[in-house]
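In the design runs reported in the main text, the only information available to the sequence generator was the tokenized backbone. The following block is the verbatim input for one such run; it is reproduced so that readers can re-run the procedure and compare outputs position by position.
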């Protein structure tokens, strides 16, 4: 039940009235013009229904001659299953008021305090009520309006009424994501094509730059060769021997320094290794302690869940009529929640410690590798040092012998004439230099910037190719996601409609009619719709619309569908105004009986407005009779 009482003050034809409602079916009856529909309109206004605010100015709903009207709904907030629907208010009744003023100012009050429409919407969401859904509150002529809705609009309205909008939104969200990825893929493809063209240009320039570098290296070699061409073979031998001896001496000094440095590094690495092993052991002890504490909390959760399950079993065996106050599971649930939070924190800390342990292990391995490398290097250095000492002794002897041969060669050369080139002639070397300079002049415009540009565009091209690959992967994943979400939506919708269809056919059978509720265009969520078919007097089922069936047939079929959907709707409150105007007496009686039987065992509240009380006479309903006395609507009878 949602509304326990409605209080009207200066609203339309009501000066002041208190209308109590009960669970189950509440029938508001009375002659035309008595104020029956005004009562449902007042409820809709108080709930903030958009339909009522679009269809007329709210100030026109104030009683003639008055400046202000108030509609107050006393909402039922009593405990259900030990919890209140709106836990924010620790009381059985919540007062929701809508104030209308002649100057056009309107506002809500919640528990006698000003409230925004968002506050009211949040309150109604907690109570499971959507006043803007036609299937929840159906005003006069809305039965006719429902029949002319498109199949797509009908389906969306049913989804909202039974709480399945999330499935549709999941599909639409995945489709929007796919559209964004496809657009991104197209953009990256264009960028990749442009980058490839630019890269081809810079690749050609880069190849020319490499050719230039090779020519420059060749020219430097030729200049060096020309300089050595002026040197006597003996002088060359002497210089080479002396240079080799000096080089070996330099290498010997360098190796001695390296040996000293390596020995110092070895000591340093050994010290670091001891320190890292100590930190690793300490970290390991911390991980073991956290694992033990985590295991204790997991054991606590398991024990508490077993106790909760046993308590639930005991309560079920005792029966719902017994008050087992000693079975208190709140503390156990709180302990379970606390332990789970601790485990989450411990998992976070364990991951951190394990990461630290892994880093320490890698550092230990690295240091051990460094120690091994250093020891190997020391052995190699010592071996090289001994070899160098032997080589230096041999070179010093060779230099002395070369000096003797050089002196003899110089004396002999001075007697024969000037020196000559030993490898190539000077002209041959100069000709080769001139040819090389000509090739370099042809490549003078190729700068070193080419290499940087080629590397930059190569990197950009590779990055774009990787992005294109990732986007393609995301596209495939999103396509699968769209398919999976679409299948989930079809499954829940088809399951719902299958059950509704069976109940719809059962209710129609009472009126000697046949029909079907089915999902159309199920593979396209935007085009998917709900189609309601009905056939009377032996006719084949045809789509329900404003042209094929008579007024009574349309209202009978629509009400049959609403009653078939009844048990699946999440709202605890429903209302329909004068649904039976066009029905014949038989169908009016039939729909009334089905309505009462459907709502009787459900935890819901149904408000029915009808000009005929006879239909519901002698039935298990709450009948409210409205009459107009001297221009005022009054509640004359509540039975």
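Verbatim output:
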């Amino acid at each position: 039940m949602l509304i326990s009482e409605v209080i009207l003050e200066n609203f339309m034809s009501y000066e002041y009235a208190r209308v109590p409602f009960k669970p189950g079916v509440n029938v508001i009856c009375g002659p035309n013009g008595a104020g029956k529909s005004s009562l449902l309109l007042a409820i809709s206004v108080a709930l903030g229904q958009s339909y009522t605010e679009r269809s007329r100015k709210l100030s026109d709903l104030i009683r003639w001659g008055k400046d202000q009207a108030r509609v107050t709904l006393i909402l039922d907030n009593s405990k259900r299953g030990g919890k209140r629907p709106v836990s924010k208010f620790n009381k059985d009744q919540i007062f929701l008021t809508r104030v209308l003023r002649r100057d056009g100012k309107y506002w809500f009050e919640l528990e006698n305090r000003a409230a925004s429409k968002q506050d009211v919407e949040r309150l109604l969401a907690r109570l499971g009520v959507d006043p803007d859904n036609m299937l929840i509150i159906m005003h006069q002529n809305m039965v006719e309006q429902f029949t002319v809705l498109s199949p797509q609009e009908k389906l969306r309205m049913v989804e909202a009424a039974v709480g399945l909008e999330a499935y549709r939104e999941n599909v639409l969200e995945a489709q929007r994501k796919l559209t964004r990825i496809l657009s991104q893929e197209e953009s990256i493809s264009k960028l990749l094509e442009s980058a490839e063209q630019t890269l081809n240009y810079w690749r050609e320039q880069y190849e020319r730059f490499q050719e230039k570098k090779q020519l420059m290296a060749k020219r430097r070699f030729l200049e060096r060769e020309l300089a050595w061409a002026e040197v006597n073979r003996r002088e060359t031998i002497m210089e080479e021997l002396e240079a080799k001896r000096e080089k070996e001496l330099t290498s010997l000094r360098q190796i001695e320094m390296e040996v000293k440095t390596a020995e110092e590094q070895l000591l340093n690495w050994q010290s670091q290794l001891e320190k890292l092993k100590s930190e690793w052991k300490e970290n390991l002890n911390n991980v073991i302690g956290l694992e033990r504490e985590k295991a204790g909390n997991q054991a606590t959760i398991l024990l508490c869940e077993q106790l909760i399950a046993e308590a639930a079993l005991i309560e079920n065996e005792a029966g719902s009529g017994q008050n087992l106050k000693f079975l208190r599971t709140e503390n156990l649930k709180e302990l379970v929640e606390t332990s789970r939070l601790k485990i989450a924190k411990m998992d976070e800390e364990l991951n951190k410690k394990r990461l630290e342990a892994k880093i320490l292990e890698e550092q230990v391995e690295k240091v051990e590798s460094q120690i091994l490398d250093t020891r190997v290097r020391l052995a190699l250095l010592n071996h090289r040092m001994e070899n160098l000492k032997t080589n230096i002794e041999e070179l010093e002897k060779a230099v002395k012998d070369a000096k003797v041969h050089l002196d003899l060669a110089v004396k002999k050369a001075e007697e024969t004439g000037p020196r000559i080139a030993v490898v190539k002639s000077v002209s041959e070397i100069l000709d080769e230099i001139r040819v090389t300079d000509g090739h370099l002049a042809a490549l003078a415009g190729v700068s070193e910037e080419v290499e940087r540009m080629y590397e930059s565009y190569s990197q950009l091209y590779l990055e774009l190719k990787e992005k294109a690959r990732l986007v393609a992967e995301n596209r495939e994943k999103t396509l699968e996601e769209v398919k999976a979400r679409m299948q989930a939506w079809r499954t829940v919708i088809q399951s719902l409609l299958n059950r509704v269809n069976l109940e719809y056919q059962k209710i129609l059978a009472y009126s000697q009619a046949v029909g079907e509720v089915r999902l159309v265009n199920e593979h396209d969520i935007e085009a998917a719709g709900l189609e309601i078919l009905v056939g009377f007097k032996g006719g084949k089922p045809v789509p329900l619309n404003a042209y094929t069936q008579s007024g009574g047939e349309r209202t009978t079929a629509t009400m049959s569908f609403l009653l078939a959907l009844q048990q699946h709707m999440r709202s605890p409150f429903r209302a329909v105004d004068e649904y039976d105007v066009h029905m014949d007496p038989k169908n009016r009686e039939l729909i009334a009986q089905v309505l009462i039987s459907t709502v009787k065992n459900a935890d819901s509240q149904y408000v029915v407005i009808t000009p005929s009380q006879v239909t519901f006479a002698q039935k298990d309903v709450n009948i409210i009779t409205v009459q107009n006395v001297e221009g005022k609507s009054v509640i004359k009878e509540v039975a």
